[in-house]
Amino acid sequence: MPGQTLPLKDIKPIVAVPDHSLWLLTALVAVGILLLGLLLFWLLKRRRNGGDPKRTEALKRLQALDFSDTKSAVYDFSLLGHFVATPETMPTFRALLAELEPYKYQKSVPALDTALETRLRDFIKEARRG
User: Which residue windows are transmembrane per the record (predicted)?
Assistant: First the structure.
């Protein structure tokens, strides 16, 4: 019958579906802010306590270098300088290492050149500031 409509029996009435996405987004943002705050607190506390303990110890030992013992000073500077060198001072550090090569690997070495010793001390002062 063309003009007659039959009642639909399979279709259920509209049901409200709870939408928790706003609560989930709010919780996610809150957790992110909390984690960011904890990270910032940890970084500030670490910086206030002197930063990286390896760097701090290396700086102390570099400042106490005895340049009268050339061979020991050169080896200690070569080893400890890696801990205090920053990306900005790394080219200077590499240049100093290249200049220190003649003072290594020999049984007896001459005293450090005064200009080289001054540059080493300047590098240590720069590392202390940075």
Answer: 20-44
